[in-house]
Design goal:
The protein has 140 residues and is α+β, with helices and mostly antiparallel strands. The chain is built from five helices and five strands; from the N terminus they run ααββααβββα. The longest helix has 16 residues, at 124-139.
Length: 140
C-alpha cells in the first residue's frame, strides 16, 4: 500500500536507498541531519537536492565500514582519501576492485578532472573491457 504522506514516503525511500548503498548508523538522526543541512560540512558551499551538479547533497561515509560521517557536496565527496586509496584491490589491476558488501566489481578513476565510475555484477572481465576500451579511446 503506497504512502499517503509524500514526506514519509520520501524519508522511507531515502533510508532504504542508504541501506542498499551500505550506509550504516542511526538512520533517524542521519535523515534529520540530511534534511536540515543546507551547506557542505567541509567547504561550506550551498547544497542543492538533485542528481546533478558539483553542489548536490552527498552522504559522505567510510567506504570500508559504511559508517556515516558528513553531508557534503559532490566535489568534496569524490575527493575523500578513502575513495582514492582503495585497500581492497584484489583484481591485480589499478583502479579495479571487488566490493564485498555489494558483490560487484568496481572501476574508479579520475580522468581529465572527471570521475569515471563503473560497476558490474558478473565478472572481472566485464570491468576490464571497460578499462581497456577507455585506454584505447583516450590514446587515439
Amino acid at each position: 500500500m503506497p504512502y499517503k504522506d509524500p514526506v514519509k514516503q520520501y524519508k522511507c525511500q531515502k533510508i532504504s536507498s542508504w541501506k542498499k548503498q551500505g550506509l550504516k548508523g542511526d538512520y533517524e538522526k542521519i535523515y534529520e541531519k540530511y534534511i536540515n543541512t543546507t551547506n557542505c560540512d567541509l567547504c561550506n558551499i550551498e547544497l542543492i537536492q538533485g542528481n546533478k551538479g558539483r553542489n548536490k547533497k552527498c552522504m559522505e561515509h567510510n567506504h570500508n565500514t559504511g559508517e556515516f560521517r558528513n553531508i557534503v557536496c559532490h566535489n568534496c565527496n569524490i575527493h575523500k582519501s578513502d575513495i582514492k586509496k582503495r585497500t581492497d584491490n584484489t583484481s591485480g589491476y589499478k583502479h579495479i576492485s571487488y566490493c564485498n558488501t555489494k558483490k560487484k566489481w568496481v572501476y574508479e578513476k579520475v580522468l581529465n578532472g572527471k570521475r569515471i565510475h563503473f560497476i558490474r555484477r558478473k565478472n572481472k572481465i566485464d570491468i576490464l573491457c571497460i578499462k581497456f576500451a577507455g585506454i584505447i579511446l583516450n590514446n587515439t
